[in-house]
Amino acid sequence: MSTAPVPRNVRDARRLVVIDLENIAGEARLSPSRAADAIERLAAAIDLGPRDDLVVAADRRNAAVAFFATPPQARRLIGRGPDGADLRLAEVLLTEEVAARYGTVVIASGDGMFTGITADLRRQGVTVLTVSRMRSTSIHLRLAADNTIYLDGPAVVARLRARRAVSLGAA
User: Fold this and answer.
1) Alpha helices, H only, the chain
2) How far apart (Å, rounded) are the C-alpha atoms in residues 70 and 8?
3) pLDDT tens for residues 48-63?
4) Phi then psi dihedrals of residue 111, to 5 deg
5) In Å, how far are 67, 111, 131 from 76, measured between CA atoms?
6) What is the pTM assigned to this prediction?
7) CB of 78 within 8 A of CB of 88?
């Protein structure tokens, strides 16, 4: 069943954020603190908000920790095996008419398996931003995307400090 295309002005204002939490946390086995830190860094990096459509995937062993750290509006997917989370996110990007529904897609992963999908989305007029850690970003993915933000880069670290200072001041 195909859906009617979303009007361009509405589509361009919408943003899909797909998150491979283990990848952006830098851990195959997530700890609650690393999962929360990864989500907090992502939020600071892209100004994550309640209107963003979020899809988070994690391996079944990490699901409870990952999903507890995830914002409440996120759709949660469980993968199995070393590439399980990546495959679940790729399935969303390939099968859910993303280019017809969103003007921007944020891929929170540095995994090179998203390179082809990124290039295809860009050919369809979607702005694609990748967000990951400096040392774990595929150069091919970085080159395929419109822009890449590093969660451990100085700009994100500064924004994170500012957000934390505001939170402490409000407490």
Assistant:
1) 8-13, 21-25, 32-46, 63-69, 84-95, 98-101, 115-123, 139-144, 154-170
2) 29
3) 988 899 999 999 999 9
4) -70, 130
5) 7, 19, 19
6) 0.89
7) yes
